[in-house]
Automatic annotation (TrEMBL):
SUPFAM superfamilies to which the protein is assigned, alphabetical: PLP-dependent transferases (SSF53383)
In-chain residues carrying the UniProt-annotated modification N6-(pyridoxal phosphate)lysine: K235
Biological process per Gene Ontology, one example term: anthranilate metabolic process
Cofactors named for this entry: pyridoxal 5'-phosphate
Enzyme category, top tier: hydrolase
An MF annotation (GO) of this entry: pyridoxal phosphate binding
Family annotation (HAMAP family): Kynureninase (MF_01970)
Catalyses which reaction(s): L-kynurenine + H2O = anthranilate + L-alanine + H(+); 3-hydroxy-L-kynurenine + H2O = 3-hydroxyanthranilate + L-alanine + H(+)
Protein name per UniProt: Kynureninase
EC number: 3.7.1.3
Entry-linked PANTHER family: KYNURENINASE
Length: 424
């Protein structure tokens, strides 16, 4: 059932079992924030846990590593345990550490072992650039030419990937495949379970970049048999700018020596023995490198607590309802204005954002910001609208579409250059 009135949006909000979480976030009056897939908002709980860590530093100094409510020495493992349910993994398989790009370097340095005919790394034509740079860098470090050893699954429509094409590209020459769970631009959700099953059957190691799905879509990494994964903490997880990311290593790989070894990958009991013989931790903790960025991890304590309370199943349900509602409103209100919905429509094929395409997308994004709606722009023509289910309401979506309609009717986008800004 759908109706385009504001009353209907309010009725949806009244029925929303997660509505109470919105009050925990710092929302600016009149502003509608739809950029939670680039940088999630600050919650009071994240602010509090950051404050607690700062306080510990203030009063304990060095003893903060082992004392206080959140001893820093164990924080990465503790956050890994809090994140594990979001990934469908067991705590020892998940560690909160590094950033997406650094973690990808680490796991390729560890698991990419070209041998015989299997020398290639498979990615895709629509991958986030940093992943491609990391893969190419790892190839060059082994003396291999990316032009020959980096394969990219082509996109048929410039927006999405076909699982068939991915499976077909997993030949006997592929050692590792690195693929996104959700594509950063179009918001397509890949069938990672199907891809993982086929990868195992074909002897290809599968690494996933879950930056655009963690906190928005449930995962079942263990059940699917994924080999490794990486993600960031600043998008749907709301860990703050530059928040520490995370990595997953399937337990069948425990014991693999880290390609980029460092002392924080040590077994905790032995780390301070200061031996030159590396004694790695048993699980994913072994793939940490140096001293953890405690201040950039601290907000995740409070932020992840909220995910545990809300439950990723309920968050996904609300996220799907929000994006469905947004698409229906867009089609109803903005028909004939040159928009195209670029993300897949089906629930099992879309992530947490709507990819609205328009030839005047950069100017429209600026006009939206001017009117208090925060989207982001991705070249060449995508307006990304991410209604993060912890803090975006149905009434927000209704109001954002109303403002967008006014912008289009008055052609306000013509006041702006049709070019992107420095960031986006
Ligand atoms: C899919 C994806 N991969 C990798 C990155 C790079 O992450 P980072 O800069 O945290 O390494 C991003 C975002 O910046 C992303 O969206
Ligand atoms: N990591 C970012 C940054 O440092 C500045 C601005 C944006 C970002 C992002 O995360 C962008 C995001 N990965 C994307 O999906 O495009």
């Amino acid at each position: 059932m759908f109706d385009a009135t504001q009353e209907f949006a309010h009725a949806l909000d009244r029925d929303d079992p997660l509505a109470r979480f919105r009050e925990e976030f710092y929302l600016q009056p009149g502003r509608i924030y739809l950029d939670g897939n680039s940088l999630g908002l600050l919650s009071r709980r994240a602010e509090r846990s950051l404050g607690e860590i700062v306080e510990s530093w203030k009063i304990r100094g060095i003893d903060g590593w082992t004392e206080g409510g959140h001893p820093w020495f164990y924080l990465s493992e503790r956050l890994g345990a809090l994140a594990a349910p979001l990934l469908g993994a067991e705590p020892p398989e998940v560690i909160v550490t590094g950033s997406t790009t650094v973690n990808l370097h680490q796991l390729l340095a560890t698991f990419y072992r070209p041998a015989g005919r299997r020398t290639k790394i498979l990615a895709d034509e629509l991958a986030f650039p940093s992943d491609i740079y990391a893969i190419a860098g790892q190839l060059r470090l082994r003396g291999l030419d990316p032009a020959e050893h980096l394969l990219r699954v082509p996109s048929r429509d410039g927006r999405t990937l076909e699982e068939e094409d991915i499976l077909a590209a997993m030949t006997g020459e592929v050692a590792v495949a690195v693929l996104p769970t959700v594509l950063y631009r179009s918001g397509q959700l890949l069938d990672a379970g199907r891809i993982a099953a086929e990868a195992r059957r074909k002897g290809v190691l599968l690494g996933l970049d879950a930056s655009h799905s963690v906190g928005a879509v449930p995962h079942a990494f263990d059940e699917w048999g994924v080999d490794f994964a990486v993600w960031c903490g600043y998008k749907y997880l709301n860990g703050g700018p530059g928040a520490v990311g995370g990595l997953y290593v399937n337990r069948r790989h425990f014991g693999a020596l880290p390609g980029l070894a460092g002392w924080f990958g040590s077994d905790k009991e032995r780390q301070f023995d200061m031996e030159h013989e590396f004694a790695p931790a048993e699980g994913a903790g072994a793939y940490q490198i140096g001293t953890p960025h405690i201040l950039s991890a601290a907000p995740l304590i409070g932020a992840l607590e909220m995910f545990a309370e809300a439950g990723i199943g309920r968050l996904r349900e609300k996220s799907l309802r929000l994006t469905e509602y947004m698409m229906r409103l867009i089609e109803h209100e903005l028909a004939g204005m040159g928009f195209r919905i670029g993300n897949p429509r089906e629930e099992e094929r879309r992530g947490g954002h709507v990819a609205l395409e328009h030839e005047r997308a950069p100017g429209i994004c600026r006009a939206l910001k001017e009117r208090g709606v925060v989207p982001d722009f991705r070249a060449p023509d995508v307006i990304r609208l991410a209604p993060a289910p912890l803090y975006v309401s149905f009434a927000d979506v209704w109001e954002a579409v109303r403002r967008l309609k006014e912008i289009m009717t008055a052609r306000e986008y013509r006041r702006y250059d049709n070019r992107r800004g420095v960031v986006a």
